[in-house]
Design a protein that fits this description.
Blueprint lengths: L6 H9 L9 E2 L3 E2 L7 H8 L8 E6 L3 H11 L6 E6 L4 H5 L10 H14 L5 E6 L8 H10 L4 E5 L14 H9 L4 E4 L5 H11 L3 E3 L2 H5 L11 H17 L5 H14 L7 H9 L3 H12 L1
Parallel strand pairs: 1-3, 2-3, 3-4, 4-5, 5-6, 6-7, 7-8
The structure holds flavin mononucleotide (FMN).
Length: 296
């Protein structure tokens, strides 16, 4: 997730889990414009390998030649798969006709997947779509475009681009995609609790489940472990430590990332007035001290 799941975050998250509970994760999207992305950008996004849990590199763009050239470079990194983003609804992305903008052009999606597939060697390629742009009438067509391009897997975020990140979800759209293709489908959207993982699989027939925001709210959602408040704050503290150890972000700069994580934390772990106080804290040393205290 862009702006959140950087390598430091992933290192802390993956350390909590076994591959049986958490089968994979991806980098934040890497934007591909009109030329191959330099290898150092790809490796920076991936970070070092810290867990047996596979990490894929997510690419987003609309230029199939540049995407294919980037994919060839990805196959020389430690990425375990390539994921193509056809779901990002951000305005800048749409203006660049990438991400969710391509949901209006299934033929382009197929062409991009095919180009990336052809240049990725033995690396598996997956693609992530939303259920549609304005409406979900064509979710089968979009799923088939991904399959026809040769993807090894498909993730369906069940909201349309128009629905953004609305609370309401319609998982029957995932079931429709599952029925339309032979490749494994990963369902996404509106999983709020551990029990929802089994429920989504049962209701839609999807093989895998992807969890976005609820995993930031509760990093243990994949295993169903009931973490305490102190454990949740130790997670935040560990994230700060790893960022510092890797010097990816200087201490005075990392408070933005830490606050973003705190803004997502489940209400079970902190009262709303405490969350507000942490989010408004301007002094990074005081912020760190408050997190240390909560982690004890
Ligand atoms: C802050 C934020 C950043 C995101 N960045 C990405 C991204 O880089 N790539 C991607 O495929 N999806 C991204 N997403 C979408 C999520 O992966 C997921 O599809 C969406 O939040 C729906 O799942 P959820 O209801 O479990 O949160 C992002 C979502 C949020 C809220």
């Amino acid at each position: 997730m862009e702006g959140v799941t950087d390598p430091a975050f992933r290192a802390v998250m993956l350390a909590l889990h076994e591959p049986e509970n958490l089968g994979g994760s991806t980098t934040e999207f890497v934007r591909v414009v009109d030329h191959a992305v330099p290898r150092h950008i790809l490796t920076e996004n991936l970070g070092p390998v810290v867990s047996p849990i596979p990490v894929g590199l997510q690419l987003m763009g609309n230029d199939s030649v540049a995407l294919a050239a980037t994919a060839a470079r990805v196959s020389e990194t430690n990425a375990r798969f390539i994921d193509l983003n056809f779901g990002c609804p951000a305005k800048g992305t749409l203006r660049g006709c990438a991400g969710a903008a391509l949901l209006k052009e299934p033929a382009t999606i197929e062409r991009i997947v095919a180009a990336v597939r052809a240049s990725s060697g033995s690396l598996p390629v997956s693609a992530k779509i939303r259920a549609g742009y304005e409406h979900a009438r064509d979710v089968e067509q979009l799923a088939r475009a991904v399959e026809a391009g040769g993807a090894d897997g498909l993730t369906v975020h069940c909201r349309t681009r128009a629905e953004g990140y609305a609370d309401a979800v319609d998982w029957s759209r995932i079931a429709r995609a599952v029925s339309a293709v032979q490749i494994p489908v990963c369902g996404n959207g509106g999983v709020l609790a551990h029990a929802d993982i089994a429920r989504m699989r049962a209701e839609t027939g999807c093989r895998y489940v992807m969890i976005g925001r609820a995993a930031l709210a509760n990093p243990w959602i994949f295993s169903g472990y009931n973490a305490t408040r102190a454990e949740a704050f130790r997670f935040v503290r560990r994230y700060m430590q790893v960022m510092e150890e890797r010097s990816a972000v200087a201490r005075r700069h990392f408070s933005g990332r830490v606050k973003q994580l705190i803004s997502f934390l489940h209400p079970n772990f902190l009262a709303e007035d405490e969350r507000a106080a942490l989010l408004h804290e301007q002094d990074v040393e005081v912020l760190v001290a408050k997190i240390e205290a909560a982690a004890r």
